Predict the structure.
Amino acid sequence: MNPKILKYPSGQTHVAWDEIPGASSYLLKLCDAETPDVYVDTEVQTPEHICEEDFDKESVRVIISALDDKGAELDVFSEVIAIAMSSDTHANVISNPFNLNFNAEESVNLNTGAAVYKTNVLTLPGRGGFDFNLDLIYDSSEAEIRKPALYGGSQTTDRSRWHDLGVGWRFDLPYINRSSSILYLPGRGSFPFWGFTFADRSLQDMRLGSGGSFTSGNLRTTIMLQFHNGTSYFFYRQLIIGMADRYGNTIRFEYEAAPLQPAGRRLTRIIDTN
């Protein structure tokens, strides 16, 4: 299974291993290498887990059991694994592993040379742990007002008008780029899709669907994203208009009336689970 363990400055520990064909879930245990102490004992559907427990160890015994859809054991792994330390956060690594981070808010993309600034502007504690954090991002690669057109001249770029903020600025919210069929999720990255099927993605941890009855203000869902843990995201074209967890706790996003470009709708209100 070839597990890897990476610990972040926040105290979180990321455990990941190779997917086992036919496995529908995994039993994961992290134990002290020399004593019977157990730090993590959980069942997950995907071959990775983010541990919130902060255990101060250089290595742990990792026990992973791969189970089929009837709970029968397909494979088992047990070995002491060293814990690697990271100076970055899990969200930043997943979002872009090619970033050079100067501090918590500033980074440079080593692929494109783009400068990125990110800062939190709003935190709403939610019912049942369904919290919401709103970050504001400046990305110099999205700061172009006009770009060369295919047959000469120039054209205005849609990205410069996200949320009707200044050029290059946007809120770090989930969105769908309809022209390139890309789904963006904060902290997870970008996912290409065709129709409602993700391209080159074997994990079944989320799925896209059309329509739905969810509304926010005068906007109605056109695309719905469902996660394996029961959480759903609701989109009106490009824009996120709602989030709901498996218990029905809901966060709504309201926008101004129709502008020239759908992506440029000004975010006017966020209604949290409370």
About this structure: The longest strand covers residues 73-82. The radius of gyration is 21 Å.
